[in-house]
Amino acid sequence: MFGLVTALMVVLLALALLSWTAAGEDGPPPGAASDGSVPGADADSDDKPGQAPSGMAGGQGQTGPSERFGSQERPSGYRALVANPLYETGRLSPRPCPVPELDVEDPESMEDFLHTVADCLDDAWRTQFLRAGIPFTPPERVFWDEPGISPCRAYPSRAGAFYCRASTSIYIGTADVVDKWNGATDSVVYASLLAHEYGHHVQGESGLLEYYHGQRQLEEDVLERNAWTRRGELQANCLAGVFMGSVRVSYPLDEEDVETLLDDAAATADREDGEEEDRTHGSVDNSVAWTRTGLEEQRPGACNTWDVADESLVH
Predict the structure, then answer these.
(1) Domain count, the chain
(2) 177: domain range?
(3) pLDDT score at 274
(4) What CA–CA distance (Å, rounded) separates 13 from 18?
(5) Is 124 helix (H, G, I), strand (E, B) or coil?
(6) Best label site of 100, 131, 186, 291, fewest CB within 10 Å?
(7) Is residue 36 part of a domain?
(8) Max CA distance (Å), the chain
């Protein structure tokens, strides 16, 4: 009898305790996060950058860039020049890049056009850098209509467009560039020019620009310095071709546009009758050849001008 009474008392006590606990769950306990998050929960997370956390949509079966390509680290030294991981990333993925109609006499139209192409360049090269496991930040854009000063030079300048590594920015005058290009009306000319300057940003973000600039400064002979510069400019030509080839269908580019692009590569090359001290962009044949290589191959690895044994290809 005593055991039965004891058991009944235990049951009643348990029911009372359960009722009290339920009544106390109307709100979170003091100090708890009220938005459903748990402070500090991600501090030791095993989820990789760029990968959806486990259990969330997109996390199942997907891997982030750090897991697939190693930790993100910018190459340096001679390796950055001749064995850059960017060279191993394969073809740029074809992507939609329909551009707006360009009215070269309207600076606002030019600005809109340049921003559209720059958006496509950002997307294309961001993907390649993720594949390479190299950190990447898109360049700033200064599409100007008033004179100004960059950390590298004042503008307008002799160049219709330029890239300044000190500010990681591309500078193009929306009206000035049309004047510099003698009023050219084919948009592919300006898209290719922007892609060329973007190519210098790609060189900078991949670590090779710093090394090659440093080596060039060590040269006392201007002709030796020019040899470094030519390889850099021809590589930028090729990288521009890589991008233009990747958007050939969606831009779209027809055969006439491609010929215009190659003609422009010839026009911006070194003058055949120019002084040797002024040869910084490569011969007409080489300027066209490297641009064509990029267009056809559509992969950064085809643009390794630093590991070319035949000097005539980079003169």
Answers:
(1) 1
(2) 100-314
(3) 87
(4) 9
(5) helix
(6) 100
(7) no
(8) 119
Quote the pLDDT of residue 311: 86
Is the pTM here over 0.90, yes or no?
no
Neighbours of 51 (CB within 10 A): 18
Per the listing, tokens 């996390």 go with 59
Question: Quick one: pLDDT at residue 14?
Answer: 41
- Is residue 248 helix, strand or coil? coil
State residue 71's pLDDT score.
62
Low-confidence ranges of the chain (pLDDT < 70): 1-71
Query: Long-range contacts: 281-286, Cβ < 8 Å, 24+?
Result: 281/229, 281/230, 281/233, 281/234, 282/230, 282/233, 282/234, 282/237, 282/314, 282/315, 283/315, 286/234, 286/313, 286/314, 286/315
Backbone angles phi, psi at 172, to 5 degrees: -140, 130
Beta-carbon neighbour count of residue 30 at 10 Å?
5
Q: What is the pLDDT of residue 58?
A: 31
pLDDT given at position 95: 87
Q: Look at residue 77 and tell me if it is in a domain.
A: no
Is 286 a member of any domain? yes
The two structure tokens encoding residue 179: 């004047």
d(CA 218, CA 228) in angstroms, rounded, equals: 11
